[in-house]
C-alpha cells in the first residue's frame, strides 16, 4: 500500500485498482443472479397460491394459472440446464459446442419466463381489488 504524503492515510495505488480480481467479481455476480432467480421463483409460488385461493372468481383464472405454471416450469428447466452446463468442460471443442447449445436453450427459457411474468402482471394479481362473491352484502342499492 502506498502512503499518501499529505494525509498520512492508506491509499490503493493505480496498478492495484486496475488489477481487479475477476474471479471474485464473477462469484459475486453469480450469487446475486441466483438470489434474483430465487426471488422470482418465490414470487411465482406466492402468486400461484393466491390465484388458487381466489379460484374461479378471478376474471382471468385459467390464463393466470397457465402463465404462472409455465413460468415456474421454465425457471426450473433453466436451472437444471445451468447445473448441467456447469458440469461440462469447456476445454474440449465438442463439449464447448454442447455448452453453447445449452446456453442458447437457457437464454430462451429465461426469455419466455420473463415474457410470461410480464403478461401475467398485465392481467393483474392485485389483492387490493375486491372480488365479488355470493356472500357479499350490497350496501348501496340503486
From TrEMBL:
A Gene Ontology biological process term: cell adhesion
Main location, first listed in the record: membrane
Annotated keywords: Cell adhesion, Membrane, Transmembrane, Transmembrane helix
Membrane topology type: Multi-pass membrane protein
A cellular component annotation (GO) from this entry: membrane
Record-annotated membrane-spanning stretches: 63-88, 100-119
Family: Belongs to the ninjurin family.
Name of the protein this chain belongs to: Ninjurin-A isoform X3
Organism: Drosophila kikkawai (Fruit fly)
Gene: NijC
